[in-house]
Amino acid sequence: MAKEDKKYSCEQLEAHILYCLARKRIWGGKHTPLLYVRSGLPLEYRAEAEEIAKNLAKKGFITWLPKTGQIHISLNPHKRKEIIEIIEKYFGKQLW
To answer: Sign (positive/negative) of CA torsion 7, 90, 20, 95?
Structure first.
């Protein structure tokens, strides 16, 4: 039996990255390597993780920190309400 191929939209992948960060409470001064978030994506989308994170940074949802040869990211606490709305749109209501 072959597995069904699921196609994810850019918005769904963005919501997944935001969810990964929110679940671990990576807000403001606390940050994590992009590799952590990338590993949570489906295999076929991991190569796009950096581009998706750049788009989220342009929109102001995450902060982008070049640290020790790696890219670190964190959620922007000033956009908390909008981030939660995006996550709940794709993952359901009241996740916290």
So the answer is: negative
What's the pTM value of the predicted model, to 2 decimals?
A: 0.84
pLDDT in tens, 48-93: 888 898 899 999 999 988 777 888 899 999 999 999 999 998 887 6
Domains recognised in the chain with CATH numbers: 10-91 (1.10.10.10)
Q: Which long-range contacts (CB under 8 A, 24 or more apart) does 21-26 make?
A: 21/62, 21/73, 21/74, 21/75, 22/75, 22/83, 22/84, 22/87, 22/96, 23/95, 26/73, 26/74, 26/75
**Which tens digits make up the pLDDT trace of 3-19?**
445 678 888 889 989 99
The residues that bridge with 70 in the sheet, in sequence order, are 67
